[in-house]
Amino acid sequence: VENVNFECLSLHHSLEGTDKRQAYHTTSGAVQISGSSHVMFSRCDVQHAGASCMYTGQQSSNIVIENGRVADCGGDGISMDESSTHITIQDNYVNTTGFIYMMQPTGIRVQGQRNITVQHNEVLNVPYGAIMVGWQAGYEWTPPLSPGHYVFNIRYNHVHHYGLGILNDFGGVYVSALVSCWQHPLQLEAPNAAPPSCNMATRVEQNIMHDAECYNYGADGFYADEDAGGMDVVSNLIYDVHSAGIYFHCGVNLTATNNFVYNADSAGHRGALSGCNMGGFSKHLTLDASFQQNIIYVVGNTSHLSTPYSRWDNSTFNHNLYYDPSKPLVFPNNTDFQQWQAHGEDAASKVADPKFESVAKRDFRLAADSPAHNMGIHPVNIVLVGPHDNPFGHMPLASWTPLQALQKRADLPTSLVPVVGQISREKCITA
Question: Does the CA dihedral 45-50-53-58 come out positive or negative?
Fold first, then answer.
């Protein structure tokens, strides 16, 4: 099927209830696109599916899902298989997914080979990770793919109230390669095989992630799982998460730049940042990461920037701004700031108040006299985040001041019951 547009449809109450899967991957949906190209779903409302709501698979390309609502899905909200190319998921409202099939359920799950973009969506009320990327073989740096060119672009999304105290070990944006990545040093699968590529070619930029709660461990902001590499995490705002704000669980060619992290590790699990574990399979892996020009604001009972069992191997830290208003910070390897600098890290970094406008009100704009301005740290522009042309009743962030936007969004998930209703004909005609 080629060159088909679906607009302003309400697709409710699917009897699909098997949630066909291969391992952790969804392979079916109430709305399923297979072997198709140049197909668009625009301003459509997909709700009340027994399993996953929307699925793209079997060599589909040039698919756009935009300006819609996906809600009350027993499995994933929107997902695809790794043969997909040129897929755009944008300006959607994805609410309440994965409460029946809990094998790593998510709001949006993407795989693919070229040009997979997830942008300007709002994802909330999911018992695991909000946006999940990968669970497939990595990529070699061969044309047209090269460093700085990404398969996955995850940007301008607002993800919040995920985990919900139900499951463990996930992130607001959660990226992983195949299990063979972290098993290959032990040669468990094929003793004479060459190591697989764990390069996930992903850029995660200008997302807001907040209010993550696990059952007893692992509710992170951004999470790159064991040995997944080739990722740039840039200018994200992450706050009020039970576990690490940024977790690089081993891997190479990883960067975290200009991210704002506040009140990470609120449950005291992993530290505000987390690196390669010292035990288990991880002791055979390495971490090569760069942390530059980030703000890490620690509050609560924790004083550790990273857990005692994290290794940082070949990682570098510099030009970062750290702050804890009530107690001295503990840096990696159980050091204080001066000892950490003596190890050659964070030479141009500071421990100082970044002077957010109001942390109590979760207003993370930088005051005019913030030391961040002179360190090359730029404000995270939250007015670009979230749906901008969605007709289902929620104001875009651009219509609010930054403080009002965050307050409004924090009030949304007071109930796990999704928004139910019909799209207005006027909005469909005029949108």
Answer: negative
Structure tokens at 222: 């951004």
Phi, psi of 281 (to 5 degrees): -60, -30
Q: Do the Cβ atoms of 31 and 55 come closer than 8 Å?
A: yes
At 119 the pLDDT is: 96
Q: How far is CA 291 from CA 149, 320, 429, 430, in A?
A: 20, 8, 47, 45
* Summary mean pLDDT of the chain: 83
Q: Which residue has the higher pLDDT, 173 or 423?
A: 173
- pLDDT tens string 127-169: 999 999 998 888 776 655 565 689 999 999 999 999 999 999 9
Which of 83, 82, 85, 78 has the alpha carbon at shortest distance from 41?
78
Question: Cβ atoms within 10 A of the Cβ of 343, count?
Answer: 13
Cα separation, 98 vs 311, in Å, equals 33
Looking at residue 355, its pLDDT comes to 97
Short-list 297, 272, 304, 299, CA closest to 353: 297
